[in-house]
Amino acid sequence: xxxxxxxxxxxxxxxxxxxxxxxxxxxxxxxxxxxxxxxxxxxxxxxxxxxxxxxxxxxxxxxxxxxxxxxxxxxxxxxxxxxxxxxxxxxxxxxxxxxxxxxxxxxxxxxxxxxxxxxxxxxxxxxxxxxxxxxxxxxxxxxxxxxxxxxxxxxxxxxxxxxxxxxxxxxxxxxxxxxxxxxxxxxxxxxxxxxxxxxxxxxxxxxxxxxxxxxxxxxxxxxxxxxxxxxxxxxxxxxxxxxxxxxxxxxxxxxxxxxxxxxxxxxxxxxxxxxxxxxxxxxxxxxxxxxxxxxxxxxxxxxxxxxxxx
Length: 310
Ligand SMILES: Nc1ncnc2c1ncn2[C@@H]1O[C@H](COP(=O)(O)OP(=O)(O)OP(=O)(O)O)[C@@H](O)[C@H]1O
Ligand SMILES: [Mg+2]
Hints:
By secondary structure, the chain is an alpha/beta fold. It folds into two domains: 3-222, Rossmann fold (3-Layer(aba) Sandwich), CATH 3.40.50; 231-294, Alpha-Beta Plaits. It is 34% helix and 31% strand. It is built from ten helices and 14 strands. It has helices spanning 49-56, 98-108, 113-126, 142-154, 172-187, 199-205, 223-226, 243-247, 270-282, 297-309; strands spanning 3-16, 21-34, 37-42, 64-69, 72-73, 83-86, 160-164, 191-196, 208-213, 216-222, 231-239, 257-259, 262-267, 286-294. The strands form three sheets. Strands 6-7-8-3-9-10 form a six-stranded mixed β-sheet, sandwiched between helices. Strands 2-1-4-5 form a four-stranded antiparallel β-sheet, with helices on one face. Strand 1 and strand 2 (21-34) form a beta hairpin. The longest helix is centred in the middle third of the chain and has 16 residues, at 172-187. The protein is elongated and about 80 Å long. The two termini are 38 Å apart. It binds adenosine-5'-triphosphate (ATP) and magnesium ion. Magnesium ion binds next to helix 1. Adenosine-5'-triphosphate is lined by residues 14, 16, 23, 25, 43, 45-51, 88, 197.
């Protein structure tokens, strides 16, 4: 298995203000990202995600530790030609049209005009911006800017694509479009490394995730092994029985919520579910729905966050 990104004790301390107050943005990050697939770099605001990405892309220098991209040190400029990057807050020269902007980016990568025309054509298709490329960037919506930003990150046909919060500020349709592009990139054999705090987006597409909290790596691995596949509780919706009847059952310990004619309760295990079903049957009640709950990324995220705070 080839490694796309690797860091060893990568750390960054910022010094800012007149008194050079120190902020430890990243502490001893040890991360391994395999080649191919989608890697989600998760963490709440201020966790150090952008700092890590800036270190990986050579925009800032580490205080200590090291990192490698495709086996080469992050300081090595040659590796950057194999990287594509969409920053968190990209700066666009807004009087350029989308097309001019992409040509400009291609020129920066040293591409000739014929190659640029061909590449831009296929990228506009990929990000679904065909027909919008002659509009000035200042007339693009946030979603369109994000898509043209993605096209920019792919102009040099990179092996690794690093995206800092690619779905931020997008509506659900825009988020799905970006997710679909990321899945296409994966199909093309690229490694996609992206940061997010939108857990549901990560849950839908990531092969692997890492969780960063207050500059420290809390967990890394395949989502299915990080998440507990066991059912943690079972939600049951009932009708034609009363709250009082349920309250009298000795095996139901959780509170019952009442919505008009429907009762909602949560059971800890399947044993209790079958006892409840027998009882509902006896009382001629009606089972509207049974929903098993598994641990979600959100639950894990909150658990880790509470552990750090404690
Ligand atoms: N240039 C800087 N000077 C001083 N402190 C900084 C600088 N850049 C980042 N920090 C601090 O480093 C920490 C990590 O910030 P970073 O931007 O990496 O977080 P993030 O995980 O990307 O957060 P968000 O989800 O809000 O984008 C924060 O406490 C931030 O205030
Ligand atoms: Mg950030």
